[in-house]
Every structure is written in C-alpha cells, then in structure tokens.
Write a structure and sequence with these properties.
With about 210 residues, the protein is an alpha+beta fold. It has helices spanning about 5-20, 80-95, 145-150, 180-190, and strands at about 35-45, 50-55, 70, 70-75, 100-105, 110, 115-125, 135-145, 155-160, 160-170, 175.
C-alpha cells in the first residue's frame, strides 16, 4: 500500500505506533548493553511513497563492517534510547532531529552479541539534509514502505545451531538478517495493526559475536 509522504501519513503511523502494545521493560537490571536504532521515515526516491532509511556500514569498521543496518548504536552513560537514537542519526546521517518527531517505540530486541536494542520510529521531514558520515556509513538507501509489505519481502529458515527461526528480509538481491530484519518486520506488522512479537526470531551464526 502506497503512503504519500505528508501529514496524513505521519498521523496514521503515529496512531499505529500508539496503538501498538509494546512489551514492558524488564523489572530486573539486564546484563545486556543498551542500544538504540532509528526507523527514520522520509520521502521515497520517486516521491510517491514514504520510506525508511537503511544504511550500508562502512567497510573499515571494527564490528559488522559492510552490513546493512538501521542508523543507531550503543547508548552512552545516562542516555535514554530516544536520546541515543537521535544522536546516532545525527552522527551517521547528519540529521539533527528533536524528540517531537518521535512517533513511537517498538519492542526491545536482545541480540546474541550482548545488546538490548530499542527501535525508535521518527519522522524525518527534511530528507535533503541527509549527509552520510563516511567514517561510519558507506551508503544510505530509502526503502519504500510498500516494499516491506509484499508477501515475499520476508522469509524464515532453520539453522542447526538453534531451535529458533531465522528471519530474512529480501532487499536488492541481498538477504538482510536479524536484528535489522526483525525490527523492520515488526514495524511492518505495526503498520498493519498487528502486535507481532519478534524477540524470539533468531540471528544467523555470523552475527552472534
């Protein structure tokens, strides 16, 4: 379904995020390190749809080099996930946004590598301001929301190392795995009005470190 980039779509997505029953935060302190990523909504390449921003990580990075990722990173000491998400968006893509553009949060996702990721949905109206930081980002891509709503956009497979299903997002002849694929999948489900959980969706073994 096409969603023209504008106030009506912003209101609709904000309402979908508000209606989403997010899993409650854990009552006990977690050993996982807190991190945040951004589903930054902006205009698609052809201008006919709303899109989210997906990056290809720089090839010289120490961790997860060359992989597809949502903008984001580790929370600094005393920083909330929303603050961290907005800071990382600025550091990676040059987008300086304030908390009034936050539309909602998705479920925290625990990774095999020891992080608890909070996905933050934001409305990034001024897409002309995007300037990828070459120290962190090799390229930035606009993924139209209609793309992730196709029946064949995601699939699930099994691996011998885990009883949990591995989720994969098919994008431009590439397979994007969890955590990124899981978070995009849950956002797709939120847009459809479904409270679908993704915390048990598995990552490929290469992402466990």
């Amino acid at each position: 379904m096409m969603r023209a980039f504008g106030d009506a779509t912003r209101r609709n997505i904000a309402e979908a995020c508000a209606a989403f029953a997010r899993l409650p935060d854990a009552t006990e302190p977690s050993a996982l390190k807190r991190a945040a990523v951004v589903l930054a909504l902006t205009e698609s390449n052809d201008g006919d749809d709303t899109a989210f921003l997906l990056t290809k990580r720089a090839s010289h990075l120490r961790a997860h080099r060359g992989q597809w990722a949502l903008p984001g990173g580790r929370c600094d000491s005393g920083e909330t996930p929303v603050d961290a998400a907005l800071r990382e968006l600025d550091e990676e893509l040059g987008l300086k946004l304030t908390t009034d553009v936050v539309l909602g949060l998705l479920d925290d996702y625990p990774t095999r590598s020891g992080y608890l990721i909070t996905p933050v949905v934001v409305w990034a109206a001024d897409s002309a301001a995007i300037k990828p930081n070459p120290d962190e980002v090799a390229s930035v891509h606009r993924i139209a929301l209609a793309t992730i709503e196709h029946d064949d956009a995601f699939d699930f497979t099994d691996i011998p190392e885990s009883a949990r299903r591995v989720i994969r997002f098919h994008h431009q002849m590439s397979l994007i795995h969890a955590p990124t694929a899981a978070l995009i999948y849950q956002f797709r489900e939120v847009l459809a009005g479904r409270n679908t959980r993704v915390t048990e969706l598995e990552q490929p073994v290469f992402a466990w470190k």
